[in-house]
Write a structure and sequence with these properties.
Strand content: 5-15%
Helix content: 40-55%
Order of helices and strands: HEEHEHHEHEHEEHEHEHEHEHEHHH
CATH class of the largest domain: Alpha Beta
Structural class: alpha/beta
Radius of gyration: 19 Å
Strand order of the largest sheet: 3-4-6-5
CATH superfamily of the largest domain: Metal-dependent hydrolases
Number of strands: 12
Largest sheet: 4 strands, parallel
């Protein structure tokens, strides 16, 4: 078993030498931020699953990594590893052009990238792969899509499953399967969407409803024979202006079916005030726990290790105040400890809940 000291030294290229002060540690080079020994141990021991975790929002860099494997270096891996995340689900949504071709190319590129670096990555296709990634000190990649328009026919679900896709968000905007959260007159789950959903259930492909409209959200949970996931969303009770956030009714129905909701760290869905911080994220977790129990909440941060403001140069701030996204798992864990969550419950939130749900879903 790794000691805390060997854990801190494991990423010597990035992590600072241990600074011990009353049970706190400075983990990151060029940073005075310290984390409690309990936080360090919890992150080290947990299988942390980010169900919308991007390796990078710099898509030029990502394209280079996936098409010119030598461009991905040990330092890139070490930075991802030092984040504390064990498994990433780096899905994007293709909504224009030839969505079938774009989605096919995306999945093929991920497969090639993972195959190029077996010393760093594991393609997560079944529950055992999650455990294996943790045991071997590698990073797991769940291949998914944030739109299901590439399912031109029900048989396409089988074809993409064979390519390695294990998660599919049914709608990004209104499509042939159902309604999106941005569509004011969304029609709910369509008959075709119900057929695709049934095939996904049969194969063991996880159904994601993060961007679905309210009616479609409820329809999908009702129609699904397996637990449904909200990989990245927050609570509308706390952000009433956001149609992308889920209602209490939807969260209750999701939990009753065995589903899990990943809380996002994207500012627009976290809070609306002048100051939006990690405390607001913790507030969403608290709300879900009080509503349906700790077994139905996880992480779906919807951001990389640099934040969206740096990646997109948006005029409107989209990152949380005061958060260094490379440390988001440690910051969240510290916050959960402050709010008196138990060690076992924190481990469920960090990844145990999604691992349980995925195990149920992926077993066809």
């Amino acid at each position: 078993m790794l000691s805390r000291r060997s854990f801190i030294h494991a990423g010597a290229g990035v992590l600072a030498a241990p600074f011990i002060n009353r049970g706190h540690f400075s983990l990151f080079a060029n940073s005075l931020d310290q984390y409690s020994s309990l936080t360090v141990d919890l992150v080290r021991e947990s299988t942390v699953i980010d169900m919308l975790g991007l390796l990078t929002l710099d898509f030029k860099k990502l394209d280079a990594w996936r098409t010119r494997p030598a461009s991905f270096r040990l330092s890139d891996f070490q930075r991802l590893k030092d984040s504390g995340i064990t498994v990433f689900h780096p899905a994007v949504g293709y909504i224009q052009g030839d969505i079938y071709a774009e989605s096919s190319a995306d999945i093929t590129s991920w497969d090639a990238f993972i195959d190029s670096y077996p010393q760093y990555f594991i393609r997560v296709c079944n529950p055992a792969d999650v455990s294996r990634a943790k045991a071997e000190g590698k990073l797991g990649i769940i291949v998914g899509q944030q739109n299901s328009n590439h399912f031109r026919t029900v048989d396409d679900v089988d074809a993409f499953y064979k390519l390695g896709q294990r998660v599919s968000q049914l709608t990004y905007h209104d499509n042939a399967l159902g309604g999106g959260s941005t569509d004011p007159a969304e029609r709910g789950l369509t008959p075709y969407g119900e057929s695709v959903l049934a095939r996904m259930n049969q194969l063991g492909m996880a159904v994601d409803i993060s961007h679905c409209g309210d009616r479609t959200t409820l329809d999908v949970i009702e129609a699904s024979a397996k637990p449904v996931l909200v990989t990245h969303s927050n609570c509308r009770a706390l952000v009433p202006s956001s149609a992308r956030c889920k209602t209490d009714a939807a969260i209750r129905k999701l939990a009753a079916s065995g589903g899990v909701m990943g809380v996002t760290m994207e500012r627009l869905f976290v809070g609306t005030g002048n100051s939006v911080t990690i405390e607001n994220v913790l507030g969403h977790i608290d709300h879900i726990v009080k509503l349906v129990g700790v077994e139905h909440v996880g992480l779906g941060t919807d951001v990389d290790l640099d934040g969206r403001d740096l990646a997109t140069a948006l005029k409107k701030k989209n990152d949380l105040d005061g958060l260094q996204y490379a440390r988001k798992v440690y910051e969240l864990t510290e916050g959960l400890i402050r709010r008196k969550y138990s060690k076992a419950d924190i481990q469920l939130i960090l990844g145990g809940n999604f691992h349980r749900a995925l195990t149920s879903i992926w077993q066809a």
